[in-house]
Amino acid sequence: MHVDRFSEVIFLVFQVVEKNVDPETTLLTYLRRKLGLCGTKLGCGEGGCGACTVMISRFDNLQKKIINYSANACLFPICALHHVAVTTVEGIGNTKTRLHPVQERIAKSHGSQCGFCTPGIVMSMYTLLRNQPEPKMEEIEDAFQGENCLYDLISTSLFNPSAFQPLDPTQEPIFPPELLTHNNKPQKQLCFKGERVMWFQPSTLKELVALKAQYPDAKLVVGNTEVGKRKHFVPVWGFVNIIFAMGQISAVSEFSGICFGASCSLSHLEEVLRKAVAQLPSYKTEVFRAVIEQLRWFAGPQIRNVAQQTCFLSFLLLRIHICILILLDEPIDHGNNTKASFVLLIISSNKANICFLFFSKGEYFSAFKQASRREDDIAIVNCGLRVLFPEGSDCVQEIKLSYGGMAPTTVMARKTCQELIGRKWKEDLLQEACHMLASEMNLSPSAPGGMVDFRRTLVLSFFFKFYLTQILNSQDPSQSNILVRAHQHLKKLFLNYFPNIFEYEVPPGQSIEDTVGRPLMHLSAAKQASGEAVYCDDIPRYENELYLTLVTSTKAHAKILSVDTTEAQNVPGFFCFISEKDVPGSNITGIANDETIFAKDTVTCVGHIIGGVLADTQEHSRRAARAVKITYEDLTPIVTIEEAIEKQSFFKWVRKIEKGNIQKGFEEADHIVEGEMYLGGQEHFYLETHCTIAVPKKEDGEMELFVSTQNLTKTQVSQFLGVDLIFAIGVRCMLDRDEDMLISGGRHPFLGFYKVGFKKNGRITCLDVSFYSNGGNSADLSFGVMDRAVFHMDNSYNIPNIRGIGRVCKTNLSSNTAFRGFGGPQGMMVAECWMSDVALKCGLPAEEVRKLNLYHEGDLTHFNQKLEGFTLRRCWEECIKNSDYHARRKFIDEFNRQNRWKKRGMAIIPTKFGISFTAGALVHVYTDGAVLLTHGGTEMGQGLNTKMIQVASRTLGIPTSKIYISETSTNTVPNASPTAASVSADINGMAVLNACQTIIKRLEPIRSANPKGSWEDWVLAAYQSCVSLSATGFYRIPDLDYDPEKNEGKAFAYFSYGVSCSEVEIDCLTGDHKNLRTDIVMDVGTSLNPAIDIGQIEGGFVQGVGLFTLEELRYSPEGNLYTRGPGMYKIPSFGDIPTEFHVSLLRDCPNSKAIYSSKAVGEPPLFLSASVFYAIKDAIIAARQESGLKEPFRLDSPATPERIRNACVDVFTKMCPSAKPGTFKPWSVRV
């Protein structure tokens, strides 16, 4: 087909007519680069985080109305926007005029922390309200499924609901009338040509056939949810104009059912099926209800709104004969191109339809899915199971069992199905069916995707669920024993959230202008909610700015033989390739000076930076980087902790702490238990990936850096630049999510070996622990992390005889580094592991054994620091009371007696977290009374700036409205400590206090001379008297003098304490679990800001839930990271927040060692999420007891569905024995 001219695309953000459209440009790129609308964020680039959510509006010709739906801008092609309106977060409200009620509520309700994901959350809620002004809670939950964030709603008592503006749907913007006029015009074919890609949008089926014949290898794009994610482009894309027509819905004469066009979106399909379920007899809509249930967990609404139904349903349902394809009803000449014919079958909404059949009586269907995360996750294994019984009989007339996740494509259990026909639906059928399925649905132990035992067991578990469902449907009295204990298993949990009620108090007589202790809104919340907050990559492009893309190693350990940039130089816009040869200063970097900026001669991990490509645009830079060819000579890598132990690959540093007499302690014990526990690592998964902008000043060799970092001091680059600047123009580098996860490293995986001695009553007499961490290819902060792990190996328990040794393994992985908790959670997790074993061995309630061993006021820790102000036992008793622990424990025991395949568990876990760092601050007071405050900490969403303004407000005695805060910069506060270890409010608050007190002291003579004057009067008088109104502040934590050689001195300034009680329910057949309730009591001293502190507790807890139950980094045996984005790496979603979540702050516990009697709150709460892990373990214990297993067992972290299911040993797991280790090469390894 010859193209004479190329089309223009017309859409509305502002009125946009774009004539030069590149088909590879996404809506997100266009909004941010071309229109400068940076409120819509890039979090992952694959539709998995929701940060880029926008609202799409268009006129639907089928429904004859305007429809609004949310979509991922990172996946939405700009060419697909013809005749639609786009609403971004900037378009609904702003701080300069008026916030939209959605924006106002999330800000004033303390729902925004770092704020990067907040615009996406706002737009998801806004779109829901445009469609449902009074939504139900289930609709709200569903709207947030496509959003990933450690974001929590805080209690209604911390803000005043009457202050909110009402939502008035009549005030929302109308659909642009100029777009409506286009719907009356005849459609015409569109064509857009970019640098590499041509995009056709045919207007008729005949045009599509002709195009497909001309370009047989072109991709056909409907929702772009797969092509966009994979980022694989071919020279030509085909895009059908019926993508948004939602397909034809009609009755079909040959059969009874509902027919959908093949490009009908999943959301519209769900809507139609729901109406059918409500209107038709239950037996007819058996499959409809199953499809609706599966759609809920398939993806977030942003994906379901644009993804067509063939991608979700085609093979699974077609194979079991509950869905059929209606072929073309008129001939179309497509020559001899069979591929074009097949494509028409899948894509034409009017000529090839997918039709769901109504069921007859006696026909049953179930669909099951198990994923790593319940919401918005791809299946590990899924299935569609159908059976047909003759009327009044339980003999199988027809049965179809179809499974996904057991082969590269969907597979049928044909042999099993054939054997079951004619059999009665009784228990002997179940037993034989499971044995046959175990044989037929076998997997190689090296199968891609791993989790082989789990996947095989799921096949049997799903069939058993299906069997139970039909038993319940038949109500066969002969199966009464099965019915009684299986009925609860088939009930579904609904997420009914309960508000977290918390009341705050300030001392009587405290001035209303003194905001310390009050729930002041996060300073940046309104700007975050409106998209006005500026993040690093939101900074406008500089003129002639270059973009840097890193070139990284694809080998874990190898020599670099050559680097060929020939192909890269041919990419348009290529500027240059830089490597270690181009660093004018030192190429050595790293905290221990054992790293390089660019690899020289040898690479030591996959993701090791070899060089970088600079080009005129981000797209050109990335294309050129991919074109750089590197040849290697392979060396043997060390990947896992076990490999490092075997080959003695350790960093030389070793930490050892010993107290008491180990031998005597074991001799005094009645019992000794030995064991080990592995704790997996964790990806930081900050929504904003690493970004840096370097801007040369062209004078005196000055370089200004804008960096997304929490450690400015270590980001200065003079030693690397030498005396000459490399470039005289700006350079920007923002990592893609996959690059960030590959390069940056994360929380250290740990392997702990323990031997614990104890009395019959559970009293611990002795503990011997060895820790091994996977440090990666450089030291980084691994020694400090191991230090804290050993310091916290006791958690909160007084152990008279104790020894702990920590070693850091040197491996060929990206260097692991600091993470919230800094080794403390790993040390405490192993402590709770052996404590759980002790309770199980003694046959005593775990809470009794834990309480028996808790420290008391004045006790010495294993590093000989005296515990002063020890409030942990108060936290414990209050948590027991708040959680109604003992009554619920009885209910759980009764629940477990009545249910075989669902079990509940509960655990109460304490934490003791040591706080130890220096800080600086700078305060300027201007002649109009305004105050500009700068400190050395980094605001990352934790409310640090808000708290610092509260501190300055109280110290200076002025309202917070007069105080402004400046961004953190090394030219104002040099040599600041990293914003880490939860101490930022402590140390920066004291530095701010110090600076403000200096100002107050200087103003004292003036205030004495004019006591009735105002703040402005005193400041102006000081200026006129030449009194300095600028002061610096500095603070370091005093008396930290721990001596590791003598094991004496003060290691920490003080300790933060907390206790958490969690209840969970597990599905013993699939390993799925739900967090039912969590109660937390936390000692934060006298809170500076209870709203921010509770937000930090909730956020830390949910991040810990990810660490201990969900997030799993998966590596190949060669050290290649598989989990490089939200598609495979799952952080907690909204549904992972406990159904009931109660947080309370311990009262009357001032801390004399920190600013205004407060305590650190960022890191200590994270470990409280271990209560969820041990509640899961408690539920597994109940499941194992059903199989006669009562001894301690190993459960590694995280407690994923795979680990939970495999630990619930039963008849089905025994049918799927594991392959013997060493007889196969696994797909992934535990590092």
From TrEMBL:
Looking at the keywords, is Iron-sulfur present?
Answer: yes
* Source organism per UniProt: Anolis carolinensis (Green anole)
Q: Which residues bind [2Fe-2S] cluster 2?
A: C114, C117, C149
User: Pfam families, alphabetically?
Assistant: Ald_Xan_dh_C (PF01315), CO_deh_flav_C (PF03450), FAD_binding_5 (PF00941), Fer2 (PF00111), Fer2_2 (PF01799), MoCoBD_1 (PF02738), MoCoBD_2 (PF20256)
Q: Which Gene3D superfamilies match?
A: 3.10.20.30, 3.30.465.10, [2Fe-2S]-binding domain (1.10.150.120), Aldehyde oxidase/xanthine dehydrogenase, a/b hammerhead (3.90.1170.50), Aldehyde oxidase/xanthine dehydrogenase, molybdopterin binding domain (3.30.365.10), CO dehydrogenase flavoprotein, C-terminal domain (3.30.390.50), Uridine Diphospho-n-acetylenolpyruvylglucosamine Reductase, domain 2 (3.30.43.10)
- List of residues binding Mo-molybdopterin: Q710, R820, A981
Q: Which residues bind [2Fe-2S] cluster 1?
A: C44, C49, C52, C74
Question: What PROSITE patterns is this protein classified in?
Answer: 2FE2S_FER_1, 2FE2S_FER_2, FAD_PCMH
Indicate the segments forming the 2Fe-2S ferredoxin-type domain, all copies: 7-92
In the UniProt entry, which residues are flagged as the active site? Answer: E1163 (proton acceptor)
FAD-binding PCMH-type domain: residues covered: 192-307
> Which protein is depicted?
Xanthine dehydrogenase
Needs which cofactor?
[2Fe-2S] cluster; Mo-molybdopterin; FAD
Where, by residue number, does substrate bind?
R788, F822, T918
Recorded GO MF terms: 2 iron, 2 sulfur cluster binding; FAD binding; iron ion binding; oxidoreductase activity
Residues engaged in binding FAD: L220, V221, V222, G223, N224, T225, E226, V227, F298, K369
Q: Which InterPro entries match?
A: 2Fe-2S-bd, 2Fe-2S-bd_dom_sf, 2Fe-2S_ferredoxin-like_sf, 2Fe-2S_ferredoxin-type, 2Fe2S_fd_BS, Ald_Oxase/Xan_DH_a/b, Ald_Oxase/Xan_DH_a/b_sf, Ald_Oxase/xanthine_DH-like
Co-factor binding comment: Binds 2 [2Fe-2S] clusters.
